[in-house]
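Archive transcription. Copying these from loose printouts into the bound notebook so they stop getting lost. Printout 1 of 2:
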Amino acid sequence: MMAAVLSIDHLQKRFGKFEALKDITFSIEPGEVFGFIGPNGAGKSTTIRTLLGILRPTGGQATIFGLDAWRDAVSIHKRIAYVPGDVNLWPNLSGGEVIDFLLRLNGQTHTPRTDELIKQFDLDATKKARTYSKGNRQKVALIAAFSSRADLYIFDEPTSGLDPLMEEVFQQQVLALKAAGKSVLLSSHILSEVERMCDRIAIIRQGEIIEVGTLAEMRQLSRSTVRAATQQPLAAIQALPAVHQFEAKTPTQAVFSVDAEAIGDVVAALSRLGITQLTTTPPTLEDLFLRYYNQEGGSHD
């Protein structure tokens, strides 16, 4: 088995008495797109800044390519591409000059791929950076990152300020990295973005990881929504222990949620009542996210 590209083991970070990171543990494998989700203030950016060697951990360890994220930051940075959620640019340089400068900083050059990315992201690279909106500043950083030949790409709320069309371009580029066997850490609050692209997901709440796994694994722990219509009354279904939030529309029509492991038993019980209509919907990432936060007693911050 190949070694993990990134590994975090019981990472902690305190600012005075405030514990920004209490206990963070997860890893990213080669070729994996890993989603890192949580509300603002949960510790996502603090974790990423520690990975980048900007912040020194108070406890625990973070390694990238087997190297210590704090001690070996210079060596690590040669092999990563990073885009923050709010990009500051040199105001008197054009967008194209900034892209070329960012590439040169990493020992790389402007290529035909760079030109293609400028076109796909619909950026006027001749304008001065000081004239750019937040979305256009994000585009500059994303074009430079996607132009780079890196082994790990770290995106911290990268589509902040982008319109839906540009979000789609971003997602296509990440999926292309995945197809090329690259590893990606994506911190985002746009759950549909994470749901579409990520192989595994970590949910962070108040500086602690409360769940890590694939979307399928997380869905096994949650409930599907069932809409059913039957020939005979549905009252008996409401009494089943795996059925929750039962809402009768008519005596023979209802909407309810079912524990994932019991869906087969509930469908069998429905079939005995003569099913005339049945749809089951697995939980979305947003459903899972809210359920984990609510059951952990967390609140959005």
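Printout 2 of 2:
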Amino acid sequence: MTLVQMQPRSAGADPAPQTVENAMEAPGPQVCDDMTVEVALSVMAGARTGHLLVCDDDGLCTGLVTRARLAAVRAGGAYTDRIRLRDVLGDSGPFASPMTMVAEAEHAMRYRRLDAVPVVDEHGGALGVLALAR
């Protein structure tokens, strides 16, 4: 049995909507988009993480790759050890703004079947990762 600790609240008080900024995790490892899939999988194993933020040469976030996605690419018939992360990412995004409401971001993630999305600032710099609770 799991115990849940309840916090008393005043009658009629609605909890303030939570923004992504308050719910995101630290960004974790960030790698360049010219890294190969094999090296990225090694970085993930070493960092004990299931995802990496991918950045371009200017340090701007271009997306997020997961261990499952990279494993699927590696298992594909067209795989070579020269495939780079930029080849795996495809189109940029989706991304979350730190000011987005958590409920809105979670809805979009569930609709797109994503476990995590990068949170970026107005310039495209990575601030963190929003991951769905399992």
